[in-house]
Design brief:
By secondary structure, the chain is α+β, with helices and mostly antiparallel strands. Helix content is about 30%, strand content about 25%. Strands 1, 2, 3, 5, 6, 7, 8, 9 and 10 form a nine-stranded antiparallel beta sheet that branches. The chain has a six-stranded mixed beta sheet with strand order 11-16-17-4-18-19, sandwiched between helices. It comes from Candidatus Symbiobacter mobilis CR. This is DUF3696 domain-containing protein. It holds the Pfam family DUF3696.
């Protein structure tokens, strides 16, 4: 799980400060304010550690098949107006429950440009509670590496350049001796934490009328959710101990959202093709023929059950095309599955209904402020800013932003005024 995130000079963010991340973290606020950037920063590191090029410092994307995002070039990431130095940085803290030697630690990377315009690490720091490893770029692309509080570097040279933002070369690790083993363990834990991020974007593919099942078990659903039905087919048709676990979990939440009574996979004749059928009010219909809201929330529900324990699930606008009650129930999904399945949810949303239900869940003691974090993000003068909403044990917001979800009291006041005016006019 990620405990903390900080960005400096990254897109609209001059400095986020330390953003505390909890098992359920919600990012709310205005359009184009920088909410998605907070999620994308960690996805940028994820696609970097998954790059086939070990020597790469930061993978800004461009491979449509393997990369999650195409960030463009260095200047597209660097905050406009940044100078002296022209650098941006990413840092985070994590805590893992996986069977790894290093359970928690921190990463810090500052990035600049080389003479050819490529992205290079300027300052690199990995640390645990007792160990610290640092690589600093010097002249002509050489790096010096220090361990803990040593005043003199262990070594200097171009061969000490960090790899994929999370590790050093095998040659550099060998020169660190026993400390190199600790660094390898820490790098592995960081890599696993980033690889365990699963992401679903706001634009999801429309469903097909039927699907071919190739008897495979997909490892993911894709950032647009296009493989969600493949996961459901595997859940229903593969003979294994947890057969139907995912499809039953998805059906349960569709019922709680009151948008379906059951979800079912049906074979079309004796072919290898299958359809997804939605049951509601004693009527069954192909997924293609029901409201768009069901097909759009299906990947959200599927991912919540597919993601392995210990994963961080990042969602953008999970509520799209859902009616208010269904949006509210999403809050219950995040709270319950974060606890039951040990997964972390980081959610970017515009839904007032989702947020209000989170308040209610706090009042009901289904979740505590220590297990959740809410942020309001806005952008002024081309600079993003945020405030952490302070909620008490009853879900009441102590530092409510002006115009957070519009002016509900003002709307009520205006309606009352207009009603009174029209009643007076009618009497005349």
């Amino acid at each position: 799980m990620f405990n903390r995130l900080r960005l400096t000079n990254f897109k609209a963010w001059q400095d986020t400060g330390d953003v505390v991340l909890k098992p359920v973290t919600m990012l709310l606020g205005t359009n184009s304010s920088g909410k998605s950037t907070l999620i994308q920063s960690l996805l940028l590191l994820k696609q970097t550690v998954q790059s086939p090029d070990r020597s790469i410092h930061l993978n800004l994307g461009g491979d449509e098949t393997n990369d999650i995002f195409n960030f463009g070039d260095f200047d597209n990431v660097l905050r406009q107006g940044t100078s002296n130095p022209r650098q941006f940085s990413l840092s985070f803290s994590f805590q893992s429950h996986a069977d790894l030697r290093v359970k928690e630690g921190d990463l810090f990377c500052s990035y600049g440009q080389n003479s050819a315009g490529g992205v290079v690490i300027q300052d690199w720091l990995l640390k645990t509670n007792v160990h610290q490893f640092r690589a600093v770029r010097r002249e002509k692309g050489a790096y010096s590496v220090t361990v803990n509080d040593e005043s003199q570097p262990r070594d200097k040279g171009r061969h000490l350049a960090p790899e994929r933002s999370v590790s050093l070369s095998a040659e550099a690790i060998a020169k660190l001796g026993q400390d190199g083993t600790t660094l390898e363990d820490l790098s592995l834990s960081i890599r696993r934490e980033l690889e365990n991020i699963v992401y679903l974007g706001p634009l999801r593919r429309k469903p097909e009328r039927d699907y071919v099942w190739n008897k495979a078990n997909p490892g993911g659903i894709g950032s647009d959710g296009h493989r969600a039905v493949d996961v459901l087919l595997a859940s229903a048709l593969m003979k294994r101990e947890d057969q139907n676990r995912i499809i039953e979990g998805v059906s349960k939440w569709l019922v709680r959202m009151k948008i379906a009574d059951k979800l079912e996979v049906k074979q079309l004749g004796r072919s290898t093709r299958y359809e997804v059928v939605i049951h509601r009010a004693e009527v069954e219909a192909n997924l293609r023929d029901v409201g768009i809201g069901i097909s759009q929330v299906l990947p959200v529900l599927t991912l919540a059950y597919l993601a392995p324990s210990g994963s961080t699930i990042m969602l953008e606008e999970p509520e799209i095309h859902l009616h208010p009650l269904a949006q509210s129930v999403l809050a219950e999904l995040f709270v319950e599955l974060s606890q039951e399945r040990n997964v972390q949810f980081i959610v970017e949303t515009h839904s007032e209904h989702l947020f209000r239900r989170m308040q209610t869940l706090m009042a009901k003691q289904k979740i505590t402020p220590s297990d959740s974090a809410m942020y309001f993000v806005e952008c002024k003068d081309k600079t993003a800013s945020m405030r952490q909403l302070e909620l008490d044990e009853f879900g009441r917001v102590k530092n409510w932003p002006e115009g957070f979800f519009g002016d509900a009291l003002g709307e009520t006041r205006e309606q009352a005024r207009l009603m009174f005016t029209r009643q007076q006019e009618a009497k005349v």
